[in-house]
Amino acid sequence: xxxxxxxxxxxxxxxxxxxxxxxxxxxxxxxxxxxxxxxxxxxxxxxxxxxxxxxxxxxxxxxxxxxxxxxxxxxxxxxxxxxxxxxxxxxxxxxxxxxxxxxxxxxxxxxxxxxxxxxxxxxxxxxxxxxxxxxxxxxxxxxxxxxxxxxxxxxxxxxxxxxxxxxxxxxxxxxxxxxxxxxxxxxxxxxxxxxxxxxxxxxxxxxxxxxxxxxxxxxxxxxxxxxxxxxxxxxxxxxxxxxxxxxxxxxxxxxxxxxxxxxxxxxxxxxxxxxxxxxxxxxxxxxxxxxxxxxxxxxxxxxxxxxxxxxxxxxxxxxxxxxxxxxxxxxxxxxxxxxxxxxxxxxxxxxx
Length: 352
Fold this sequence. Notes:
This protein is 38% helix and 15% strand.
């Protein structure tokens, strides 16, 4: 049987609550309205991201790390509006009460009476252990994150806040991806479920309670990784699929990829493997994988986040080099990796 590509369909979905989405400048205005001179005087330190780098996964690492450090050291948080708007097209991104507006932030950079000691830290991947020590970002400091902050240990203490308030699907994305599951159950199980889209976590619980199916998310990155020798083999993917199929007899798999033609060929004989629609955005793909109970992921930060947000078991291919000096800086202990990890591009150095 050929693999199915599930199209989007319009459906009426019951909701307990509507979560409003802020748009561009109005979001900035909402932050500004909640802040005044009195609140500015209480800002002891600021953790900031003033530029954008990489794609969605890298930016999520930056925001999560900045949030974790701001929470840890009782600082406020500043993100450029461009990054806020990009992430809010996918997520609720509730960063209150830490987030400050551009006008508040600029008042500290342009007013000498409010001047702060400015420090920037450029990180490629590693966990900067000194930043989690007391007073690592003292009062009167503006700390800027630059580069690729890809160690989850900078925000591990607040991972539930990231999963429940920040990197949770916006209402519009949640409605869109729910169509995928509604169509599946209607065609394959003969009934049309009525999901209450109260929020991301509620919908995920409802999916897990449908005992006829265990959903496994698969992310396959290939385009730029083939030449870099980071791409996963067919054998890795089928071994991982076999593991879950034996563990969960009702396992069904959702595949997202930057190379859908490859995936269609690879899984053409698998009746329980489905590709996301071609019209899905990168944010749609991330959200639908985060709703799965378990994960199979290849290299890259996008796949990392799908596994991290989904929870459950996560099988990660060891061929991908994290770039960190120690594998435990990048891979949470519940990522299932059998064997050593290559440390850097085009090297044989491994992380045990």
